[in-house]
Amino acid sequence: MKAVTVSGQVCMAGRPLFAPLTLQLRPGSWTSLLGPSGVGKSTLLRLIADLPIGGTFQGRVENRVPLALMAQDPALLPWLTVRQNAALGARLRGERPDQARLASILEETGLAGHGARYPPELSGGQCQRVALARVLMEDRPLILLDEPFSALDARMRLMMQDLAAGLLKGRTVLMVTHDPAEAARLSDHIFVLTETGLTGLPPPQSQPPRLPGDAATLACQAALLAQLITEGMMP
Ligand SMILES: Nc1ncnc2c1ncn2[C@@H]1O[C@H](COP(=O)(O)OP(=O)(O)OP(=O)(O)O)[C@@H](O)[C@H]1O
């Protein structure tokens, strides 16, 4: 698999969001993208997913591969059970879901006992697990995550990070996040996007997921915070 690469520039209402850039997603690695609100992180994700953006794109996306997208809003259908929501992709394509695979993924995501429940009966963390189960059911080589854990409490966020890191290992992942600690724990590659373009920062050398209190992880988190403050994201 070649690196999925997006290069170019986006204009919203005739004004460039950021300077021309190139973002390469190395196969089988986890890339995190941080940056100030409104700079265009989700727009980059949408370009890679070939979804409409509000502006114009001058550039190209190379080496596209099938992908699955998971966002902060788990986008579950409240009238479908956990099991049906997890298998929604197949259902929408008019296919019969692979029941053995579904059972195994519900087990892996800690939902085995919840298959017959409905989303309004679930906690926020459980809903995100269903969204992750749905992504795994789709079995795509590229996974796009748009602030997937930002609505969760700190403990649940750590648990979901560990779960996602384990279950998405070996896939190419691009995650948009506002959380330097999350990027430091999970990433093989980290970029900060600003109006002037992309800046790469080195992640810790150890394998993700890293312990949140690990010295190298904390140092990476601090470097990211410093970079974001320099770029005017934080007071
Ligand atoms: N459909 C649209 N129509 C017009 N403008 C849009 C549209 N979608 C996004 N924008 C604008 O494009 C800019 C980039 O939006 P985008 O959602 O990519 O930013 P972001 O970096 O992901 O922000 P955040 O961190 O707040 O989610 C913003 O100024 C936003 O208002």
UniProtKB/TrEMBL annotation:
Name of the molecule in the record: ABC transporter ATP-binding protein
Any one Gene Ontology molecular-function term assigned to this protein's record: ATP binding
Keyword field: ATP-binding, Nucleotide-binding, Transport
Coiled-coil regions listed in the entry: none
InterPro entries: AAA+_ATPase, ABC_transporter-like_ATP-bd, ABC_transporter-like_CS, ABC_transporter_ATP-bind, P-loop_NTPase
The ABC transporter domain, residue ranges: 1-220
Family stated for the protein in its record: Belongs to the ABC transporter superfamily.
